[in-house]
Write a structure and sequence with these properties.
globular, Alpha-Beta Plaits, alpha+beta, 9 strands, four-stranded antiparallel beta sheet, 187 residues, five-stranded antiparallel beta sheet, 37% strand
């Protein structure tokens, strides 16, 4: 599944996004073309076209990409984004740790995506910790959305720690939740 994800900064400084993708149905024949758009940090609007063949899907993607460029939308380079790390204590990678990782990733991935807030890039264990790395265009909105998703899905909110850093400086993670900030380490 190819996806095109673009952003545009409004005059007031806020971001809006547009994304589109084509995916085939399970039987491998036809598929659907989907457009998702909205203000970053808010639930998006989605439109789809069902029963599209691959050639038409690729043509629709190309047209979408052209329209985005004409409207001032562009893909954000990684360097223009930020890392947010959601961290949980995890004594081991065993049963509980794996369930926590899998559930957190399943909860965060769509919650962030439908709001234009980025992607879960990895979920890795370090000694005594689970680190879920998220690449986002908006730290403040992403931190708020992560807290909401965790709370709404009955994951242990009291043990969650969140930190953020510019893309090119992941060693400069600063704790964003809970406050007041404490030293934050991935190791």
């Amino acid at each position: 599944m190819a996806i095109i994800r673009t952003y545009r900064r409004r005059d007031d400084g806020s971001l809006e996004f547009r994304e589109a993708w084509y995916e085939t149905y399970a039987d491998g024949g036809l598929g659907q073309f989907v457009i998702n758009h909205g203000s970053v940090g808010h639930q998006s609007t989605t439109k789809d076209v069902q029963d599209v063949d691959e050639e038409t899907g690729e043509s629709l993607l190309a047209g979408f990409e052209l329209q985005c460029r004409e409207d001032g939308f562009a893909e954000l380079a990684a360097e223009e984004q930020f890392w947010v790390v959601a961290q949980y204590p995890a004594k081991s990678e065993g049963g509980y740790g794996q369930r926590l990782r899998d559930t957190a990733v399943q909860v965060l991935t769509p919650h962030l995506a439908w709001r234009g807030l980025g992607t879960v890039e990895s979920a890795e264990f370090a000694p005594g910790k689970l680190n879920i790395r998220i690449l986002t265009p908006d730290v403040k909105a992403a931190v708020s959305a992560i807290k909401t998703a965790i709370r709404d899905n009955n994951l242990d909110f009291s043990k969650l720690r969140l930190a953020a850093a510019p893309y090119g400086e992941p060693e400069k993670l600063k704790q964003k939740h809970p406050l007041p900030p404490k030293p934050f380490s991935l190791d």
